[in-house]
Design brief:
The complex is a heterodimer of chains A (about 375) and B (about 500). Chain A is an all-alpha fold. Helices cover about 75% and strands about 0% of the residues of chain A. Chain A is globular. Chain B has helices at about 40-50, 70-75, 95-100, 110-125, 140-155, 170-185, 200-205, 225-235, 290-295, 320-325, 335-340, 345-350, 370-385, 400-415, 430-445, 460-465, 485-495; strands at about 5-10, 15-25, 30-35, 55-60, 65, 80, 160-165, 190-195, 205-210, 215-220, 255-260, 265-275, 275-280, 305-310, 315, 330, 360, 370, 420-425, 450-455, 465-470, 475-480. In chain B, strand 19 (about 420-425), helix 15 (about 430-445) and strand 20 (about 450-455) form a beta-alpha-beta unit. In chain B, helix 13 (about 370-385) crosses helix 14 (about 400-415) and helix 14 (about 400-415) runs parallel beside helix 15. The longest helix of chain B has 16 residues, at about 170-185. The two termini of chain B are about 35 Å apart. In chain B, about 45% of the residues are buried. Classes of the chains: A mainly alpha (about 375), B alpha/beta (about 500). Chains A and B meet through helix 8, helix 9 and helix 14 of A and helix 1, helix 10, helix 11, strand 18 and helix 14 of B.
Amino acid sequence: MKLRELLFPLMAVVCAFTVGAIVVLIIGDSPLQVYGLLLGSALSWPDGIGYTLFFATPLIFTGLAVAVALRGGLLNIGAEGQLYVAAFATAWVGITFAGLPSFLLVPLCCLAAVVAGAVWAAIPGVLKARFGSHEVINTIMLNFVAIALVGYLTQYDYRVAGDPIMETAEIGGTAHIARLGRFIPGLPERIPLNVAFLLALVASWLVYVLLWKTKWGYEIRATGQNPAAAEYGGISIRRQIVVTMAISGALAGMVGINEVLGYRYRYYDGFSDNYGFTGIAVALLGRNHPAGVVLAALLFAVLQRGGVPVDAFTQLVSKDIVQILQALVILFVAAEAMFRWRQKATVGRGKGEEGTRQQAPIAGQQASVGKI
Amino acid sequence: MKLELRNVTKRFGAVLANDHLNITVDSGTIHAIVGENGAGKSTAMRIAYGFYTADSGDILLNDEVREIRAPRDAIALGIGMVHQHFMLVRPMTVTENIVLGAEPGSAVALDLRKAAADIRSLSEEFRLTVDPDATIETLSVGQQQRVELLKALYRRAELLILDEPTAVLTPLEVEEFFSILRRMRSQGKTVVIITHKLSEVLAISDRVTVMRDGRVVGTVNTRETNAAELARLMVGREVLLRVAKSPASPGRDVLTVRNLSVQRVQGVSFDVRAGEIVGIAGVEGNGQTELIEALAGLLPESQVTGTISFSGRDLRAVDARRRREIGIAHVPEDRHRRGLLLEFSLAENSILGVHYRPPAASGAGAILLDQKAIDRRADLVIREFDVRPPDPALPARALSGGNQQKLIIGREFELPPVLLLISQPTRGVDIGAIEFIHRKIIAMRDAGCAVLLVSAELEEVTALADRLLVLHNGRIAGEVDPSLTTAEEIGLLMTGGRH
């Protein structure tokens, strides 16, 4: 990600925090105290940083999922459903094949997460490729189906008899993945930050390589940028739609690895704190670039982690300030898109001799520097 | 009305669009302003119309300095402008469109009947034959343009500025349009016509001002000049308007089309041989687009009937990717829609269509893109086709239309093609680059490539093609030898033989 690209998201964050400060002032508390608590607790060692990174993990996965889809011209609002199906599949494999040794069971569980997410996301992909039905509608609808489906399975087939909580039995001990506390001195193992965080970083790097260094990524981006030109270039648009959705779903599905193999060691119904939807904001703020997604996920995790002490230690401000800040960040990111559009339009008016005032936005697309 | 721009300068950021312009348009004349894209001709006239205000300099009307700060000032002073893209409300009637913004009657009641009568008499006066009660969407493009003219006349314009008025017209409509302009001149109106088509300048204007790089490089009486001189002034060097070519020496059949029907195309049969250029002329929308897209494999196989064979091989069930692999290159008619990924770099655009195989992709299974090989290919295309600015990292969006076109043609020529499908190769491209592209196409032919060329520019197809097919209503209306046929005869075939 070029440094200049960082400027706008950074501005959006600064603006959000400024407006947030005004809100705190209006409520009657000190912004300094609130932000101090928020950042202080989110960045304290080891609990703050440990939890912040743990919270960031699912957001990196869902942020990547949404980003890949958007690069391919698809809006995947179904990461939430995909991660639920994937988490359940992970737990199912972990329970069913509990006897297997670790070196077999862990990869098998991870595979289950990835495949389940990919398949669930491929459904709206196929529907769009085959019938032209819009992926936004279908991914939203499939969220409800997914949540109801895994809830049903948990309730009637996989809940341990007598357990009052909607959760499955525990997965086999060999399916657990290590918490990072085991390797990092000073980080207690009770903090659920686990190997899945490292996997998230690796996934980000792989997504980068996929999108910009392989022919597949070229085809995904070409299809997203201009489907007619991609088709002209011999790329099958229908195939791209299904493949891109599957990759997106696979990334969303990896949330299940963090949740089931690294944290609760079982499927716990309703575990997702809207990770799939927050992923949309993360991708937006991260400009659909893996590095940006990681940074944006960290920011959202800081807010999430820092909200708790704000609630406890301020007079008037509740942890809802976190929601306000998140909403403001999204608003300013959206405003930035508008700002860019305006800017482009103005430049186009100046350069494109053929553009008239009424056509400024179109002229912007034809802004030219080259002279023959 | 006499119009004079005196020392007009206009700057957009770092670009000097108009540099101390001095243009005088005499009353009662048709004055052409010519120049390449970006020469500043539209900017100059938009200043006269109040769309832009000049940074410095004066506008004089009938030798009096006038302040024109907005189009309404210009309209009040008797200046009208017709834009390249019509500004009409399609579901409304001619009358409603014309009075829009200048509604007659009192503040509350709208007196359309009087307006319609006024428009009818204006229409008769200039013999525009426009029905005031027709809705815009029922009118042909040529008629819509006349509505735009009426709009200006209704506002009592004495001076009309026309921006590229013939770009959307068929050859026949152009003729009618010109006779309307002459009629207006004979009634004492003054007409300024902005164009880059030299043949039209010579046909219609009394005087010509040539612009280049924001400056006036010459104003001459039309009678005392010719196309070659104007082209030289426009480009700044000698330009060959009609690229010389030797007779074709056609070889074996490369493309054989039999009874092909797809969408608008109805039962078309023809051959293209190695080493010849077959041109397709026709008014746009008569099946050219569908024909080329079907040949390139971009239309669903289910819609295509008849046979297409390439060097004896049936192309049914051969998809677009495979067609390019066997040597069918395609320069699409719409470079923004089909030809380019505008947000992608020139380097990335230079491999579209061959991105999945060596040398662009390398390693096991050709998965990884080979950045060095891609850069090499981009450099080659940029160098061979003189793409400017020559920076492979720039997004395609940043290039002018002519340079974008050269990038696409360069990419397709590097395939290298056995059969070249090339549509509207010089649309929106400057004269200097047109000459360059024409030379390249002929060189391709001489190297033994079979070329199928579609162009809406009659001059272009007749200059390049060795054989010319005329398409009308999806059928081939005739095949002619372009060197032995007049434009009138071809024009007749293009319109189905009717006048």
